[in-house]
Design goal:
The complex is a heterodimer of chains A (187) and B (201). With 187 residues, chain A is mainly alpha-helical. Chain A has eight helices and two strands. With 201 residues, chain B is mostly helical. Chain B: It is found in: Membrane.
């Protein structure tokens, strides 16, 4: 990685940290307030691409592990990894990577606006929701003893909020791609 | 703003080396899954709570730090109680509870720099292979700590600029300028790092 890549990764990790400090966003049509931090994971892949996006998430996970309160609500430290939902946090790394992989291959500068939106949305849903939930639920099942099926099903209540985040990530990623493109596009 | 979760002190846990604490923590984590006797797990949980309290952390702060994780543990235990049996629920509750309290005790007694030293040791094999440099990792950690407050201040500025123009605060209207303005700084910061020869390539 070049110095510029390291700086981009660190700045994006800092953006994810800041997203955790903001008050939760509330939408009129959904009763549960959603925290913006996991939005940062989708954005990392969509804006920086697979490698740098995953590195930014890895950096955030590292900051949590070394005892810095960087997660939403000022959470941090090794206790987070001892809990049953740690898989979602570690899943961010793979999630951002897959988001980036898909975005790098689907998004083109010559595409119509609609196709670019569709590409970013698909990347955010598959990587930022699919992969994160896959790892999160796998870990949850391992930690939750015999009731793993029930807890796995219960965790699906967060899907609607995450779909809204994927829409926000899609809109923001396209705007950033138009204003300051950084995504390494592969043809 | 971003200060470590370690608290000052000279207790036994503070004096133990970070590496030993981490090795013991991982060994206990693996071992706990082999134990299914509820009374034994309760005893472990009491010992873990005692260790956490012995770090000199106040009761209120101690609870504030672990309440969210303990809440998720409680939910998982509740699911076990509802769909299986009370003994399964108690085993999960005290097994994960022990782990959470021990992990919190390690975090409370280990400084961020002590953790970074252990990270550097763990990265040594990767460094030998030429894949990653430990110095780059600590540079990145330093950059996050340096720029997170600045990005938060920038978020406030953008919100204020919108308010001054009578615009309603919408998440997207703040997010996009925040990301673009922040990432645009990367070139200048990278140049400043290279000009000072921090990475010595």
């Amino acid at each position: 990685m070049s110095t510029r890549d390291i700086v981009l990764v660190a700045l994006f990790a800092a953006i994810i940290v800041v997203l955790g400090m903001l008050p939760p966003i509330t939408f009129g049509f959904i009763p549960v307030p959603i925290t913006a931090q996991s939005l940062g994971v989708m954005l990392a892949g969509c804006i920086l691409g697979a490698k740098r996006g995953a590195a930014a998430c890895l950096l955030v996970v590292l900051l949590v592990a070394i005892g810095l309160p960087v997660l939403s609500g000022g959470r941090g430290g090794l206790a987070v990894f001892a809990g049953p939902t740690a898989g979602y946090l570690v899943g961010w790394i793979a999630g951002a990577f897959v988001t980036g992989l898909i975005a790098e291959r689907l998004v083109r500068d010559s595409q119509t606006e609609f196709m670019q939106f569709a590409s970013f949305f698909l990347a955010a849903v598959v990587g930022g929701i699919g992969v994160v939930y896959l790892l999160g639920i796998a870990w949850l099942s391992f930690m939750s003893g015999k009731a793993f099926v029930e807890t796995a099903i219960a965790s699906l209540v967060f899907i609607p909020g995450d779909l809204i985040k994927a829409v926000v990530a899609m809109l923001a990623a396209r705007a950033v791609q138009a204003g300051y493109p950084l995504l390494p596009i592969r043809t | 703003m971003l200060t470590g979760l370690d608290i000052e002190g000279t207790t036994l846990l503070h004096r133990t080396s970070a590496r030993l604490k981490l090795i013991v923590l991982f060994a206990v984590a693996a071992g706990l899954f082999a134990v299914s006797n509820v009374w034994l797990l309760v005893a472990f949980a009491i010992i873990a709570a005692g260790l956490y309290a012995s770090t000199g952390i106040g009761l209120r702060e101690a609870f504030r730090r672990v309440r969210f994780v303990l809440f998720t543990v409680l939910l998982v235990a509740l699911a076990n109680y509802l769909f299986h049996s009370l003994s399964d629920a108690l085993a999960v509750l005290f097994r994960l509870g022990t782990l959470v309290l021990l992990a919190a005790a390690v975090t409370a007694t280990t400084t961020v720099s002590a953790f970074m030293d252990e990270i550097a040791v763990l990265l040594r094999p990767l460094e030998r292979l030429g894949l990653l440099r430990a110095a780059d990792v600590s540079l990145a950690v330093g950059l996050v700590l340096r720029f997170a407050p600045e990005i938060l201040a920038r978020y406030g500025d953008i919100r204020e600029a919108h308010r001054a123009r009578g615009l309603r605060a919408r998440p997207l209207g703040v997010l996009v300028p925040l990301v673009i303005l922040t990432l645009k700084d990367a070139d200048t910061i990278a140049m400043a790092i290279d000009a000072r020869g921090f990475r010595r390539q």
